[in-house]
Amino acid sequence: MSEIFATTGTIVAIATAVVPQQGSVGIVRVSGTEAIHIAQTLFHAPGRQVWESHRILYGYIRHPQTQQLVDEALLLIMKAPRSYTREDVVEFHCHGGIMAVQQVLQLCLESGARLAQAGEFTLRAFLNGRLDLTQAESIADLVGARSPQAAVAALAGLQGKLAHPIHQLRANCLDILAEIEARIDFEEDLPPLDENAIKSAIDKISTEITNLVATADKGELLRTGLKVAIVGRPNVGKSSLLNAWSRSDRAIVTPLPGTTRDVVESQLVVGGIPVQVLDTAGIRDTQDQVEKIGVERSRRAAGGADLILFTIDATAGWTAAEQEIYEQVQHRPLILVINKIDLASPVRINYPTEIKQVVRTAAAQNQGIEALETAILKTVQIGKVQAADLDLAINQRQAAALVKAKTSLEQVQATITQQLPLDFWTIDLRGAIHALGEITGEEVTESVLDKIFSRFCIGK
């Protein structure tokens, strides 16, 4: 492996979040050949407690030279191969906070362990055959999940629901390759190759790959979420809309225009998709230097958003100010939100005809929020995500490998149509097999592993 992942020796890391005065338990994890020895050096278990695998011991952590008490703790022992890494693993379950876990970590380092690199525990699990690469990536997705549906998708991947179809597709390609190579080596002893059957089998594999690739956008939305900016001129009810939507008082609401001077953020979940909502300062010409900065930040937020909620005041309608703002944001996916409908007469508002998604709200009265969420889901063309739909939500790396595999299979089909020799068929077929192997880790480079596992936290 590369220098980033020198996967030898015994490693240690803090496996839980360390927050001052918060968290009742902090875990220090050790993996490697010296893990049990380090535990025996540091941990004193009073009485007749038995040191055996998958048993929790109660006792004290002491400095090995001074015998100074460091913490009262639990020790979990997991001997190879029945552990996360398939190596000997011990975990010190200490009191939470900062000092206890930091002191235990330091004692482990002084006793011969080295600090783990980011993702090295999971990398060892992969290299030792406990996980394939799709399962390893699912662990990172599970740790970073921002919605229940994202967690469901990650768990499905961890259970092998992505790995299984990929393994099957690769096996099918290997079967086709074996058929072709057998004709190359033993042409006189075997019946002629059925070209139509080969083409039909490749078509079937390509179709299944296409179905898998179609889940990439859904998977990306579940992982990264959607950035939504509420945009409009001052005093149209943008902050009231954020507060009603998030069921909080994140934004200050007053009758005075220009109250919001900066971008206010709120994190929500809509139809299983994490949504970062940005309440922006009202966009208008102003001489107030502070408000000017807020307006400029609003424009930047709108430019970086995945979706614009262009909010107008139903009592004022579509004015020249709205038209000016619209011309700045019309190139982005957009929903028109006509707010304050409870204060306006039911008259037609002449907004541009190219705006297809329109929602009417009375944010101050908590009206129209459900319709807004429905419009958002329709606009991003995701529909309401159900758990049953999440088993195969692939990531961008996996999608790229699948596209590469499909391109190789299309080239095989072209080679067959052109009546080229069988040796030419095998070249691109091997390319498809290699690309599918990249997904599960059967064919993978050090640089790919470095990129994947560097995204993990150190204790994982």
How would you characterize this protein structure?
Helices cover 43% and strands 17% of the residues. The protein has 460 residues and is of the alpha/beta class. Strands 3-4-5-6-2-1-7 form a 7-stranded mixed sheet. A 6-stranded mixed sheet has the order 9-10-8-11-12-13, with helices on both faces. A hairpin with a 6-residue loop joins β4 and β5 (69-78).
Short description:
The chain is α/β, with parallel strands linked by helices.
**What is the residue-averaged pLDDT?**
83
Which residues sit in consecutive blocks of at least 5 with pLDDT less than 50? 1-5, 250-254, 256-262, 283-292, 382-390
Distance between the termini: 18 Å
Largest sheet: 7 strands, mixed
Quick one: overall form? flat
Order of helical and strand elements: EEHEEEEHEHHHHHHEHEEHEHEEHHHH
Strand order of the largest sheet: 3-4-5-6-2-1-7
Secondary structure category: alpha/beta
Rg over C-alpha atoms, rounded to the nearest angstrom: 29 Å
Annotation, overall tally of beta strands: 13
| Quaternary organisation of the protein chains | single chain
- What share of the residues does DSSP label as strand, in percent? 15-25%
| Helical residues, percent | 40-55%
- Output the number of helix runs: 15
